Amino acid sequence: MAQGCSSVIAVASLVMQYLENKQIDDARNMNIEQLVAAAGGLHRTRRHAIAMVGRAVNDALRSVT
Asked: Is the entire prediction scored with pTM above 0.70?
């Protein structure tokens, strides 16, 4: 069960849906801001979610390279 900021959970879910069945290079080249914008965007007070999920993705990518 996920806990935390609903915006972070939503962005993380969006990113995971995008990355399902993709290659590592797809994750490296992914633009989270574009994904969020295509899904309807976030209010400016919720944009921290993009940075938090981006850091988590980058940390995960560093662990597999």
From this structure: yes
How many residues are present in the chain? 65
What is the residue extent of each domain of the chain? 6-64
Alpha helix positions (H), 1-65: 6-19, 24-29, 32-38, 48-64
What contacts 7, CB < 8 A, 6 or more positions away? 42, 46, 48, 49
> pLDDT at residue 51 above 90?
yes
How far is the C-alpha of 10 from the C-alpha of 14, rounded, in Å? 6
Closest C-alpha among 65, 61, 63 to residue 30:
61
- For residues 42 and 21, give the distance between their C-alpha atoms in angstroms, rounded to a whole number: 26
